[in-house]
Amino acid sequence: MAKIYTSKTLATSKMLPKKETINFLLNYSKALTIQKKGNLIFECIAN
User: pTM for the full model?
Assistant: First the structure.
C-alpha cells in the first residue's frame, strides 16, 4: 500500500471537451429560463 501512495504521478495531458459537448451545454443554457414568483422558483426548458 505504501508504494502506491508514495510513487510520483505521471504528467497527464490536458483534457479538452469536444465541440459537441460545448454546443450541448450552450444550447441547454439558452433554452433554460428561471422565473421567480414569490417564494417559488420555476425552471422551464423551451424545447
Answer: 0.50
